[in-house]
Amino acid sequence: MHNDAIFQEIRKISGELHERVKAHRRYFHSHPELSMEEVDTSRKIADILEGLGYENVRIGTAGRPTGVVADLNSEKPGRCIALRADMDALPIKEDTGLSFASENEGVMHACGHDAHIAILLGVAELIMRTRDSFPWKVRLIFQPSEESGTFPGAKAMVGEDVLNGVDAITGLHVWMDVPSGKIGYRKGPLMASADKWEVRLQGKGGHGALPHMAIDPTLAAGHLITMMQSIVSRETDPLESIVVSVGKMEAGSAFNIIPDSVYLLGTTRTFNPELRKELPGRMKRIVESVSNAMRCEAEFDYHNNLPPTVNDADFTEQASAAAKKMFGDNKVIEIEPTMAAEDFSFYLEQIPGSFFFLGIGDESKGITAPHHHPKFQVDEDVLSDGVALIAGVAANYLAGEKA
């Protein structure tokens, strides 16, 4: 089947699947599970995939019964594309008033992963409906623990060889900052790295009225926070992007007591992998210099969590061209990168691919709450577009067409 014909078929079937995809989304929205606890979610997904006829349906990541992988035509020659959706919810009490709101108190799909599951299940069914007319060879990845900064599920799955035999990968995220009905793409860096740093400053406590008899770690912390910003303003090319932020500070117990110690916890963000490598050394130099100048002792720890999400330029060029054929140039737009992060980056470090944003923001429908908010909602009218996008990008890649 020629690409134009398969694109037409994909749009037709994705529309026919809309109500089923919406029902999937509502089920998973009602039954959210936290990172690495997506046990019932995984079992439900596996049952659906086995019912559709997928091969090698298996559950499990890092020794936990969560995460689902399934194949189609794994033994056939030719290239294979992986299609990924994340599954985990957030520890947030829902406040949407939806009839299908979370039944798990204090847990909510507040980032759209319920929609990602539903869309990929729709793609799975669409693929099976067209398997006799198009040479599909795909791996479906339903990934746990995207929201966990300390245990990214993508890294765990890559370490367990989920990409063996796979040549490329694609996926999407519903995105509030993109207007509903639009599809956002970008060649190169799309999302930033997200790393964590910690500083412990040890001074000598004392009376607030007698600072000369103490060693004040709060003063050192103030200078340190200010000096950290010199990395951004005075050590980095202004055309590059770096963020150094303090998210937490702990010190003291009373208004008139100089504390013994201060604890700082923060994050760094950048799109540039080389700058990311340099950041720990730059920060350590400043921590040591400031603490020495202020007579404090310091401990500095830097944790590499998520690398930047960098879309392969050639794959994205071809994929975005395919999307424009299906949806029209006005619906498929090139977007600016964001300092938010995604563990899809671990897949893109291994194989070429592209990550897309599916717009869901619609003020006329009252869908305006940001991600990770108790009132966050998804515009369900665009779910079938998500199905068509992922299926169309996969079909275009497997057909080997050039943009």
Descriptive tags:
alpha/beta, 403 residues, Alpha-Beta Plaits, 16 strands, 2 domains, Aminopeptidase, eight-stranded mixed sheet
> How much helix is in the residues?
25-40%
Unreliable residue stretches: none
Q: Write down the CATH class of the largest domain.
A: Alpha Beta
Shape: elongated
Radius of gyration: 24 Å
Total domain count: 2
CATH topology of the largest domain: Aminopeptidase
Instruction: Walk across the major sheet and give the strand order.
Output: 1-2-4-3-5-16-6-15
In what range is the share of β-strand residues?
25-35%
Order of helices and strands: HHHEEEHEHEEEEEHEEEHEEHEHEH
CATH homologous group name of the largest domain: Zn peptidases
Helical/strand content category? alpha/beta
Distance between the termini: 17 Å
Based on the structure given, which CATH architecture of the largest domain is correct?
Answer: 3-Layer(aba) Sandwich
Strand tally is 16
User: DSSP helix count?
Assistant: 10
Mean pLDDT over the residues: 96
Largest sheet: 8 strands, mixed
SSE map:
Blueprint: H1 3-16, H2 18-30, H3 39-52, E1 55-61, E2 64-72, E3 81-86, H4 113-129, E4 138-143, H5 153-159, E5 168-179, E6 183-185, E7 188-191, E8 194-202, E9 206-207, H6 217-234, E10 242-251, E11 257-258, E12 261-270, H7 273-293, E13 297-306, E14 309-311, H8 313-327, E15 332-334, H9 345-348, E16 353-361, H10 383-399
Parallel strand pairs: 3-4, 3-5, 5-16, 6-15
Antiparallel strand pairs: 1-2, 2-4, 6-16, 7-14, 8-12, 8-13, 9-11, 10-12
Helix pairs in contact: 1-10, 2-4, 3-4, 4-10, 6-7, 8-10
